[in-house]
Design a protein that fits this description.
Length: 336
């Protein structure tokens, strides 16, 4: 975790609402908020679902965490949960490429959250966007440094049927438009693929991205690059932009970019016991080059980023500890 200490923040005793509290990123944010003394109102779709149990076990949860039932399309549910909060962390979103399940809930849900936050007159809303809303533009020159000024090309996303990234970009644009119209102080964190230990009992999409290289479900790796960041840095970025009065606009939350070939190499070095692919699925074309990026804006707020190899290590260790990956069978001894 980066060494920024914001524990003395004057807002650390506030009541804040976290949407989708049981998810991978949100669980960590709830954990840190509770540790810092906040009172947290988490929204979940079903408070009675055992998949929320890890939240109730967090330090401070008994005294300062309440769970509220709210789907993103349920404006009244969101309104009740947000009313009485000083701030909102809007993290809930479908994470799917299915058009119907993705776009409408992400966009209308974000609109609902901003309207409810405006009505509750909260101090600030932090919205979790995605790098999918930023870097996907086939017409951008490879010399461009990708940062907070960039947006993905919506027409390209539509043509590619990349509905997750399309939905995230439309949701972020909706958040900006609604916040402007209603005078809401909005700050946006834009994480890339997030790695690290899980608090929740299931494998979310970004952890699944690594799990597939360990459990034998893929035999090759793709000829593509991916940007990564550690969950603890992602968590801290959200809290920093909430607490720092000078924070404004968008914050690209990225540590490094790796080709899939580099990811499997690091994994194989750290965990040689797993059947990690060694071949690229594309042996014809040259290796895809990483794009240039800047995370200077978050560094200017005091962030220091954890190296990606630590994120990969922590992900696998956590999957092992939670029993979410089988330990590979021991090698059969040659009896001859
Ligand atoms: N993990 C990453 O690498 C990454 C990178 C960039 C951005 N993000 C963004 O970060 C946020 C959290 O992602 P995550 O990785 O933590 O995913 P996750 O573990 O799948 O969490 C998603 C959360 O959103 C909730 N949700 C989904 N659809 C909903 C709906 N219609 N109404 C209410 N809640 C709904 C889920 O609730 P249920 O449990 O009920 O389904 C869950 O709590 C998302 O906005 C995602 O786009 C993630």
């Amino acid at each position: 975790m980066a060494p920024v200490d914001s524990s003395n923040s004057p807002v650390a005793g506030e009541t804040v609402c976290v949407t989708g509290a049981n998810g991978f990123i949100a669980s960590w944010i709830v954990k840190l908020l509770l540790e810092k003394g906040y009172t947290v109102r988490g929204t979940v779709r079903n408070p009675d679902d055992p998949k929320n149990d890890h939240l109730r076990e967090l330090e401070g949860a008994k005294e300062r965490l309440t769970l509220w039932k709210a789907d993103l399309l349920d404006f009244e549910g969101l309104k009740v949960a947000i009313n009485g909060s000083h701030g909102v962390f809007h993290i809930a979103s479908p994470v799917t490429n299915d058009h119907e399940q993705m776009v409408e809930p992400a966009v209308q849900g974000t609109k609902n959250v901003i309207i409810a936050a405006a009505e509750a007159k909260v101090r600030r809303v932090v919205f979790t966007s995605s790098s999918g809303a930023v870097y996907l533009d086939p017409n951008r020159s490879p010399d461009v440094v990708v940062d907070e000024s960039c947006w993905s090309d919506l027409d390209y996303l539509k043509t590619a049927a990349n509905w997750y990234c399309y939905g995230k970009e439309m949701a972020e644009k909706t958040a900006w438009a609604e916040a402007k119209e209603r005078g809401v102080d909005l700050v946006v964190v834009i994480p890339v693929m997030v790695l690290g230990p899980l608090l929740q009992p299931y494998v979310n999409a970004s952890i699944g991205h690594i799990l597939k290289y360990l459990n034998g479900s893929v035999k090759t790796y793709a000829n593509s690059t991916q940007a990564y960041v550690h969950i603890k840095d992602t968590t801290l970025a959200h809290i920093l932009v909430y607490e720092k009065p000078e924070a404004s606009g968008r914050y690209f939350c990225v540590e490094s970019l790796l080709h899939r070939g580099e990811v499997v190499e690091i994994l194989a070095k750290l965990f040689p016991e797993y059947p990690i692919p060694t071949k690229c699925s594309d042996e014809k074309n040259p290796r895809e080059k990483p794009f240039k990026f800047s995370n200077q804006k978050l560094r200017d707020l005091g962030m220091e980023f954890t190296p990606v190899s630590q994120g990969l290590y922590d992900t696998v260790k956590s999957l092992q500890e939670k029993g979410l990956i089988q330990n590979p069978s021991p090698p059969i001894l040659n009896q001859n």
